[in-house]
Amino acid sequence: MDIKITKTTSPKTKPTGPLGFGKIFTDHMFVMEYTEGKGWHDAEIVPYQNLSLAPSAMVFHYGQEMFEGLKAYKGADGKTRLFRPEMNAKRTNASNERLCIPELPVEYFVEAVKAVVKVDEDWIPTEPGTSLYIRPFIIATDEFLGVAPSKTYKFIIILSPSGAYYASGLAPVGIWIEDEYVRAVKGGMGFAKTGGNYAASLIAQVKAHDDGYSQVLWLDGVERKYIEEVGAMNIFFKIDGKIVTPMLNGSILPGITRNSVIQLCKSWGLEVEERKISVDELLDAQKNGKLEEVFGTGTAAVISPVGKLRYCNDVMTINGGEIGPVSQKIYDSITGIQNGTVEDTFGWITEVK
Ligand SMILES: *Cc1c(COP(=O)(O)O)cnc(C)c1O
Predict the structure, then answer these.
(1) What's the 169 CA to ligand 1 centre distance in angstroms?
(2) CA 249, 252, 256: angle at the middle one, nearest 5?
(3) How far away, in angstroms, is 255 Cα from ligand 1 center?
(4) 0.85 cut: is pTM over it?
Protein backbone atom coordinates (compact mmCIF):
# COMPACT_ATOMS: atom_id res chain seq x y z
CA MET A 1 0.00 0.00 0.00
CA ASP A 2 1.39 3.38 -1.06
CA ILE A 3 0.66 6.11 1.48
CA LYS A 4 1.07 9.72 0.38
CA ILE A 5 2.16 11.85 3.34
CA THR A 6 1.43 15.59 3.54
CA LYS A 7 2.69 17.05 6.81
CA THR A 8 1.12 20.03 8.49
CA THR A 9 2.89 23.37 8.16
CA SER A 10 1.36 24.61 11.42
CA PRO A 11 1.82 21.95 14.14
CA LYS A 12 -0.38 22.43 17.20
CA THR A 13 1.09 23.09 20.63
CA LYS A 14 1.01 19.89 22.63
CA PRO A 15 -1.15 19.85 25.75
CA THR A 16 0.60 20.26 29.09
CA GLY A 17 -2.28 19.78 31.56
CA PRO A 18 -4.40 16.68 32.20
CA LEU A 19 -5.29 14.92 28.94
CA GLY A 20 -8.61 13.35 29.86
CA PHE A 21 -10.09 11.16 27.14
CA GLY A 22 -11.06 11.87 23.54
CA LYS A 23 -10.91 15.65 23.47
CA ILE A 24 -7.47 16.40 22.05
CA PHE A 25 -6.43 15.33 18.56
CA THR A 26 -2.97 15.11 16.99
CA ASP A 27 -1.62 16.93 13.93
CA HIS A 28 -2.40 14.26 11.34
CA MET A 29 -4.96 11.70 10.24
CA PHE A 30 -5.09 8.80 7.80
CA VAL A 31 -7.71 8.79 5.02
CA MET A 32 -8.41 6.16 2.34
CA GLU A 33 -11.23 5.91 -0.18
CA TYR A 34 -13.29 2.98 -1.41
CA THR A 35 -15.06 3.01 -4.75
CA GLU A 36 -17.06 0.08 -6.07
CA GLY A 37 -15.18 -1.55 -8.96
CA LYS A 38 -11.90 0.06 -7.89
CA GLY A 39 -11.53 -1.17 -4.31
CA TRP A 40 -9.64 0.68 -1.56
CA HIS A 41 -7.45 3.43 -3.01
CA ASP A 42 -5.69 6.76 -2.40
CA ALA A 43 -4.23 6.11 1.04
CA GLU A 44 -3.05 9.41 2.50
CA ILE A 45 -1.82 10.94 5.73
CA VAL A 46 -2.91 14.57 5.85
CA PRO A 47 -3.13 17.34 8.46
CA TYR A 48 -6.03 16.74 10.91
CA GLN A 49 -8.95 18.64 9.41
CA ASN A 50 -12.72 18.75 8.97
CA LEU A 51 -14.31 16.48 6.38
CA SER A 52 -16.35 17.73 3.48
CA LEU A 53 -19.40 15.51 2.99
CA ALA A 54 -22.69 16.02 1.18
CA PRO A 55 -25.65 16.36 3.56
CA SER A 56 -27.09 13.44 1.62
CA ALA A 57 -24.09 11.21 2.46
CA MET A 58 -25.60 7.89 3.47
CA VAL A 59 -23.87 7.62 6.84
CA PHE A 60 -25.98 10.52 8.16
CA HIS A 61 -29.27 8.83 7.40
CA TYR A 62 -29.07 5.09 7.98
CA GLY A 63 -25.94 4.81 10.10
CA GLN A 64 -23.82 2.60 7.86
CA GLU A 65 -20.54 2.98 9.75
CA MET A 66 -18.16 1.03 11.95
CA PHE A 67 -15.31 1.94 14.28
CA GLU A 68 -12.41 0.44 16.18
CA GLY A 69 -10.40 1.45 19.23
CA LEU A 70 -6.81 0.58 20.16
CA LYS A 71 -3.82 2.32 21.70
CA ALA A 72 -0.13 3.03 21.16
CA TYR A 73 2.05 2.90 24.27
CA LYS A 74 5.45 4.55 24.76
CA GLY A 75 7.70 2.47 27.00
CA ALA A 76 10.42 3.76 29.31
CA ASP A 77 12.78 2.15 26.75
CA GLY A 78 11.54 4.67 24.15
CA LYS A 79 9.81 1.99 22.03
CA THR A 80 6.29 2.47 20.65
CA ARG A 81 4.08 -0.59 21.05
CA LEU A 82 0.67 -1.60 19.69
CA PHE A 83 -1.35 -4.35 21.44
CA ARG A 84 -2.69 -7.05 19.05
CA PRO A 85 -3.61 -4.63 16.19
CA GLU A 86 -4.31 -7.51 13.81
CA MET A 87 -7.20 -8.47 16.12
CA ASN A 88 -8.74 -5.02 15.56
CA ALA A 89 -8.24 -5.52 11.81
CA LYS A 90 -10.03 -8.87 11.90
CA ARG A 91 -12.84 -7.47 14.01
CA THR A 92 -13.15 -4.60 11.52
CA ASN A 93 -14.01 -7.15 8.88
CA ALA A 94 -16.49 -8.94 11.12
CA SER A 95 -18.23 -5.58 11.67
CA ASN A 96 -17.93 -4.72 7.95
CA GLU A 97 -19.55 -7.97 6.89
CA ARG A 98 -22.56 -7.39 9.17
CA LEU A 99 -22.93 -3.80 7.95
CA CYS A 100 -22.42 -4.55 4.22
CA ILE A 101 -19.21 -2.48 4.19
CA PRO A 102 -16.57 -3.93 1.83
CA GLU A 103 -13.74 -5.95 3.32
CA LEU A 104 -10.60 -4.04 4.31
CA PRO A 105 -7.43 -6.17 3.99
CA VAL A 106 -5.93 -6.84 7.44
CA GLU A 107 -2.51 -5.67 6.27
CA TYR A 108 -3.92 -2.32 5.04
CA PHE A 109 -5.45 -1.71 8.47
CA VAL A 110 -2.28 -2.55 10.40
CA GLU A 111 -0.03 -0.67 7.98
CA ALA A 112 -2.23 2.42 8.11
CA VAL A 113 -2.28 2.41 11.94
CA LYS A 114 1.50 2.03 12.12
CA ALA A 115 2.10 4.77 9.52
CA VAL A 116 -0.09 7.43 11.11
CA VAL A 117 1.19 6.62 14.64
CA LYS A 118 4.75 6.94 13.30
CA VAL A 119 4.02 10.39 11.83
CA ASP A 120 2.54 11.62 15.15
CA GLU A 121 4.85 9.57 17.39
CA ASP A 122 5.92 12.64 19.39
CA TRP A 123 2.27 13.01 20.50
CA ILE A 124 2.35 9.76 22.50
CA PRO A 125 2.29 10.80 26.16
CA THR A 126 4.84 9.16 28.45
CA GLU A 127 3.43 9.63 31.98
CA PRO A 128 2.51 6.32 33.67
CA GLY A 129 -0.88 5.06 32.50
CA THR A 130 -1.13 7.43 29.52
CA SER A 131 -1.31 6.36 25.87
CA LEU A 132 -2.24 7.46 22.37
CA TYR A 133 -5.81 6.35 21.64
CA ILE A 134 -6.28 5.28 18.02
CA ARG A 135 -9.73 5.55 16.46
CA PRO A 136 -10.09 3.94 12.99
CA PHE A 137 -13.57 4.21 11.43
CA ILE A 138 -15.37 3.71 8.11
CA ILE A 139 -18.33 5.75 6.86
CA ALA A 140 -20.69 5.37 3.90
CA THR A 141 -20.36 8.40 1.61
CA ASP A 142 -22.72 7.92 -1.37
CA GLU A 143 -25.06 10.87 -1.95
CA PHE A 144 -28.29 8.91 -1.84
CA LEU A 145 -31.38 8.70 0.34
CA GLY A 146 -32.34 5.20 -0.75
CA VAL A 147 -31.90 2.32 1.67
CA ALA A 148 -29.08 0.19 0.26
CA PRO A 149 -25.38 -0.39 0.94
CA SER A 150 -23.28 2.58 -0.21
CA LYS A 151 -20.90 2.15 -3.17
CA THR A 152 -18.30 4.54 -1.74
CA TYR A 153 -16.69 4.78 1.70
CA LYS A 154 -13.99 6.58 3.62
CA PHE A 155 -11.64 4.78 6.04
CA ILE A 156 -10.20 7.31 8.48
CA ILE A 157 -7.87 7.04 11.48
CA ILE A 158 -7.62 9.81 14.05
CA LEU A 159 -5.39 9.87 17.14
CA SER A 160 -6.03 11.26 20.60
CA PRO A 161 -3.50 11.42 23.46
CA SER A 162 -5.29 10.13 26.52
CA GLY A 163 -4.63 10.45 30.23
CA ALA A 164 -4.28 7.75 32.84
CA TYR A 165 -7.69 6.11 33.30
CA TYR A 166 -7.06 5.82 37.00
CA ALA A 167 -5.54 8.90 38.59
CA SER A 168 -4.81 7.08 41.87
CA GLY A 169 -5.03 3.29 41.71
CA LEU A 170 -7.81 1.19 40.23
CA ALA A 171 -10.95 2.69 41.72
CA PRO A 172 -13.93 0.27 41.70
CA VAL A 173 -17.04 1.55 39.91
CA GLY A 174 -20.76 1.16 40.51
CA ILE A 175 -22.66 -0.67 37.76
CA TRP A 176 -26.37 -0.54 36.98
CA ILE A 177 -27.89 -3.79 35.69
CA GLU A 178 -30.45 -2.50 33.20
CA ASP A 179 -33.85 -4.17 33.53
CA GLU A 180 -35.91 -2.04 31.12
CA TYR A 181 -34.00 -1.24 27.91
CA VAL A 182 -31.94 -3.72 25.86
CA ARG A 183 -28.88 -3.12 23.69
CA ALA A 184 -28.79 -6.01 21.22
CA VAL A 185 -30.37 -9.33 20.34
CA LYS A 186 -29.05 -12.43 18.65
CA GLY A 187 -29.25 -11.84 14.89
CA GLY A 188 -28.83 -8.09 15.43
CA MET A 189 -25.49 -6.29 15.38
CA GLY A 190 -24.32 -6.55 19.00
CA PHE A 191 -21.10 -8.29 17.94
CA ALA A 192 -20.21 -5.44 15.54
CA LYS A 193 -18.49 -2.26 16.68
CA THR A 194 -20.87 0.29 15.22
CA GLY A 195 -22.36 3.59 16.31
CA GLY A 196 -25.92 2.29 16.21
CA ASN A 197 -25.31 0.04 19.20
CA TYR A 198 -24.14 3.05 21.16
CA ALA A 199 -27.06 5.22 20.06
CA ALA A 200 -29.34 2.52 21.47
CA SER A 201 -27.47 2.55 24.78
CA LEU A 202 -27.48 6.25 25.66
CA ILE A 203 -30.89 6.40 27.33
CA ALA A 204 -29.99 3.72 29.88
CA GLN A 205 -26.61 5.32 30.51
CA VAL A 206 -28.30 8.63 31.30
CA LYS A 207 -30.67 6.85 33.69
CA ALA A 208 -27.80 5.03 35.42
CA HIS A 209 -25.77 8.25 35.75
CA ASP A 210 -28.76 10.06 37.23
CA ASP A 211 -28.81 7.37 39.91
CA GLY A 212 -25.08 7.67 40.64
CA TYR A 213 -23.89 4.61 38.69
CA SER A 214 -21.08 5.01 36.17
CA GLN A 215 -22.02 2.30 33.64
CA VAL A 216 -24.81 0.03 32.46
CA LEU A 217 -24.64 -3.77 32.45
CA TRP A 218 -26.90 -5.15 29.73
CA LEU A 219 -29.03 -8.24 29.98
CA ASP A 220 -30.01 -10.45 27.03
CA GLY A 221 -32.56 -8.82 24.76
CA VAL A 222 -35.14 -11.62 24.88
CA GLU A 223 -35.58 -12.76 28.48
CA ARG A 224 -33.68 -9.93 30.23
CA LYS A 225 -32.29 -12.61 32.49
CA TYR A 226 -28.74 -13.38 31.34
CA ILE A 227 -25.69 -11.12 31.66
CA GLU A 228 -24.30 -9.73 28.38
CA GLU A 229 -21.76 -6.92 28.78
CA VAL A 230 -21.15 -3.40 30.09
CA GLY A 231 -21.50 -0.28 27.88
CA ALA A 232 -18.04 -0.46 26.33
CA MET A 233 -16.56 -3.37 28.28
CA ASN A 234 -16.95 -7.10 28.61
CA ILE A 235 -17.68 -8.42 32.09
CA PHE A 236 -16.00 -11.08 34.22
CA PHE A 237 -16.93 -12.63 37.56
CA LYS A 238 -14.90 -14.67 40.01
CA ILE A 239 -17.38 -17.07 41.53
CA ASP A 240 -16.16 -19.65 44.05
CA GLY A 241 -12.60 -19.53 42.69
CA LYS A 242 -13.57 -19.81 39.01
CA ILE A 243 -13.36 -17.05 36.40
CA VAL A 244 -16.71 -16.83 34.60
CA THR A 245 -17.68 -14.63 31.64
CA PRO A 246 -20.66 -14.66 29.25
CA MET A 247 -19.96 -16.71 26.13
CA LEU A 248 -19.87 -14.94 22.76
CA ASN A 249 -23.39 -15.43 21.50
CA GLY A 250 -23.70 -12.90 18.66
CA SER A 251 -25.06 -10.04 20.76
CA ILE A 252 -21.84 -9.39 22.74
CA LEU A 253 -18.83 -7.52 21.38
CA PRO A 254 -15.83 -9.89 21.19
CA GLY A 255 -13.37 -7.77 23.15
CA ILE A 256 -9.65 -8.14 22.52
CA THR A 257 -9.01 -7.46 26.20
CA ARG A 258 -11.60 -10.18 27.01
CA ASN A 259 -9.72 -12.66 24.83
CA SER A 260 -6.38 -11.67 26.42
CA VAL A 261 -7.75 -11.99 29.97
CA ILE A 262 -9.06 -15.50 29.23
CA GLN A 263 -5.65 -16.56 27.85
CA LEU A 264 -3.78 -15.03 30.80
CA CYS A 265 -6.02 -16.59 33.46
CA LYS A 266 -5.74 -20.02 31.80
CA SER A 267 -1.94 -19.64 31.67
CA TRP A 268 -1.99 -19.09 35.45
CA GLY A 269 -3.92 -22.32 35.95
CA LEU A 270 -7.21 -20.62 36.80
CA GLU A 271 -10.39 -22.32 35.64
CA VAL A 272 -12.20 -20.14 33.07
CA GLU A 273 -15.80 -20.73 31.98
CA GLU A 274 -17.46 -18.99 29.02
CA ARG A 275 -21.16 -19.62 29.47
CA LYS A 276 -24.58 -18.16 30.21
CA ILE A 277 -24.76 -16.39 33.57
CA SER A 278 -28.13 -15.35 34.95
CA VAL A 279 -28.68 -12.42 37.30
CA ASP A 280 -30.21 -14.92 39.73
CA GLU A 281 -26.97 -16.87 39.79
CA LEU A 282 -25.12 -13.68 40.74
CA LEU A 283 -27.62 -12.81 43.46
CA ASP A 284 -27.31 -16.35 44.86
CA ALA A 285 -23.52 -16.32 44.71
CA GLN A 286 -23.52 -12.99 46.49
CA LYS A 287 -25.85 -14.31 49.24
CA ASN A 288 -23.59 -17.32 49.75
CA GLY A 289 -20.42 -15.25 49.85
CA LYS A 290 -19.17 -16.82 46.60
CA LEU A 291 -19.15 -13.70 44.38
CA GLU A 292 -15.49 -12.84 44.95
CA GLU A 293 -14.59 -10.37 42.21
CA VAL A 294 -16.32 -8.54 39.35
CA PHE A 295 -14.46 -6.58 36.68
CA GLY A 296 -15.00 -5.09 33.24
CA THR A 297 -12.42 -5.45 30.45
CA GLY A 298 -11.75 -3.09 27.54
CA THR A 299 -9.00 -1.17 25.77
CA ALA A 300 -9.76 2.13 27.54
CA ALA A 301 -9.32 0.99 31.15
CA VAL A 302 -7.87 -2.55 30.62
CA ILE A 303 -9.54 -3.68 33.87
CA SER A 304 -12.33 -1.81 35.59
CA PRO A 305 -13.06 -3.32 39.01
CA VAL A 306 -16.73 -3.29 39.99
CA GLY A 307 -17.38 -2.45 43.65
CA LYS A 308 -21.17 -2.24 43.48
CA LEU A 309 -23.79 -3.95 41.28
CA ARG A 310 -27.39 -2.78 41.31
CA TYR A 311 -30.31 -4.89 40.05
CA CYS A 312 -33.86 -3.62 40.74
CA ASN A 313 -34.06 -3.40 44.53
CA ASP A 314 -30.86 -5.33 45.20
CA VAL A 315 -27.48 -3.65 45.60
CA MET A 316 -24.55 -6.06 45.80
CA THR A 317 -21.26 -4.82 47.27
CA ILE A 318 -18.37 -6.80 45.81
CA ASN A 319 -15.23 -7.60 47.81
CA GLY A 320 -16.04 -4.83 50.30
CA GLY A 321 -15.94 -2.31 47.43
CA GLU A 322 -12.23 -2.96 46.95
CA ILE A 323 -10.32 -4.25 43.91
CA GLY A 324 -9.68 -8.03 44.10
CA PRO A 325 -6.29 -9.75 43.77
CA VAL A 326 -7.01 -11.42 40.39
CA SER A 327 -8.25 -8.11 38.90
CA GLN A 328 -5.08 -6.39 40.09
CA LYS A 329 -2.81 -9.16 38.77
CA ILE A 330 -4.45 -9.08 35.31
CA TYR A 331 -4.16 -5.29 35.19
CA ASP A 332 -0.47 -5.36 36.14
CA SER A 333 0.31 -8.10 33.61
CA ILE A 334 -1.45 -6.55 30.62
CA THR A 335 -0.24 -2.99 31.24
CA GLY A 336 3.27 -4.42 31.85
CA ILE A 337 3.22 -6.18 28.45
CA GLN A 338 1.93 -2.98 26.83
CA ASN A 339 4.71 -0.88 28.39
CA GLY A 340 7.46 -3.42 27.79
CA THR A 341 8.18 -4.12 31.48
CA VAL A 342 6.64 -7.62 31.42
CA GLU A 343 7.86 -10.19 28.88
CA ASP A 344 5.49 -10.62 25.91
CA THR A 345 5.30 -14.41 25.99
CA PHE A 346 2.05 -14.45 23.96
CA GLY A 347 3.44 -12.46 21.00
CA TRP A 348 0.84 -9.71 21.52
CA ILE A 349 3.05 -6.70 20.79
CA THR A 350 3.69 -5.04 17.42
CA GLU A 351 6.38 -2.40 17.53
CA VAL A 352 6.06 0.81 15.53
CA LYS A 353 9.49 1.51 14.08
C1 LIG B 1 -14.94 -2.00 22.15
C2 LIG B 1 -15.95 -2.65 23.02
C3 LIG B 1 -15.60 -3.56 24.04
C4 LIG B 1 -14.17 -3.85 24.44
O5 LIG B 1 -13.37 -4.38 23.43
P6 LIG B 1 -11.79 -4.30 23.51
O7 LIG B 1 -11.34 -4.88 22.23
O8 LIG B 1 -11.38 -5.12 24.68
O9 LIG B 1 -11.43 -2.86 23.68
C10 LIG B 1 -16.62 -4.18 24.74
N11 LIG B 1 -17.92 -3.90 24.47
C12 LIG B 1 -18.29 -3.02 23.52
C13 LIG B 1 -19.74 -2.79 23.28
C14 LIG B 1 -17.33 -2.36 22.77
O15 LIG B 1 -17.70 -1.48 21.84
Answers:
(1) 22
(2) 110
(3) 5
(4) yes
